[in-house]
């Protein structure tokens, strides 16, 4: 089985990023502030690498449409939109978390940190599922522009 190189690297980046967030959370529970910050920054760098690969693929190559049976295409599409929504919300929350941490607005940061982390975990899990459905369980359909890939036309 041959897997496409760029989606494999970018999906791995989200998963690695989520693992770093989990480590960062456990560090702050042990009150290790400096290490918490470094690990969360590393998580952010992996998320950024994911985004750069994903965005350049979208712009220069296009996105891949679902290649599985028509009967489950609608479920794939709904799931994909759910994943994209989580990723977008996670990115915004992530930037706010980095900012409030950096600015030492800890009472706010402490409230939103766990929420941000959970959204990011769900982004990674749903991202793996999208990847499996698109490239492992079924062969990817044609690679086309973003809007067409989402709508599956
Ligand atoms: C510049 C980066 C960051 C710094 C300097 C920083 C700093 C801190 C500090 C000092 C605390 C303890 C606050 C307190 O107990 O009063 C904290 C808590 C926390 N932060 Fe961060 N943080 C950063 C980035 C992030 C990011 C990006 C996330 C999530 C993705 C995050 C998630 C959390 C979580 C889950 C807690 C624990 C809340 C709790 O259970 O009490 N942090 N952070």
UniProtKB/TrEMBL annotation:
Which superkingdom does the taxonomy of this entry point to? Bacteria
GO annotations under biological process? respiratory electron transport chain
Instruction: Provide the transmembrane region boundaries.
Output: 6-28, 40-62, 74-98, 118-138
InterPro entries from the xrefs?
Answer: Cyt_c_oxidase_su3_a-hlx (IPR013833), DUF420 (IPR007352)
What are the protein's UniProt keywords?
Membrane, Transmembrane, Transmembrane helix
The record's GO molecular-function terms, alphabetically, read: cytochrome-c oxidase activity
Q: Name one Pfam family in it.
A: DUF420
KW Plastid (keyword) present: no
Please provide one cellular component term from the Gene Ontology annotations of this protein. Answer: membrane
PANTHER family in alphabetical order = DUF420 DOMAIN-CONTAINING PROTEIN, HYPOTHETICAL MEMBRANE SPANNING PROTEIN
Question: What is the name listed in the Swiss-Prot or TrEMBL entry for this protein?
Answer: DUF420 domain-containing protein
């Amino acid at each position: 089985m041959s897997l496409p190189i760029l989606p494999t690297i970018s999906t791995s980046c989200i998963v690695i990023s989520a693992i770093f967030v989990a480590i960062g959370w456990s560090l702050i529970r042990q009150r290790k502030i400096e290490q918490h910050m470094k690990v969360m920054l590393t998580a952010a760098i992996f998320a950024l690498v994911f985004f750069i690969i994903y965005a350049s693929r979208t712009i220069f190559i296009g996105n891949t449409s679902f290649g599985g049976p028509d009967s489950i295409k609608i479920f794939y599409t709904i799931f994909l939109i759910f994943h994209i929504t989580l990723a977008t919300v996670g990115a915004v929350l992530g930037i706010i978390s980095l900012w409030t941490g950096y600015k030492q607005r800890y009472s706010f940061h402490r409230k939103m940190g766990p929420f941000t982390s959970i959204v990011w975990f769900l982004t990674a899990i749903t991202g793996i599922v999208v990847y499996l459905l698109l490239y492992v369980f079924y062969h990817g359909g044609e690679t086309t522009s973003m809007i067409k890939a989402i709508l599956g036309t």
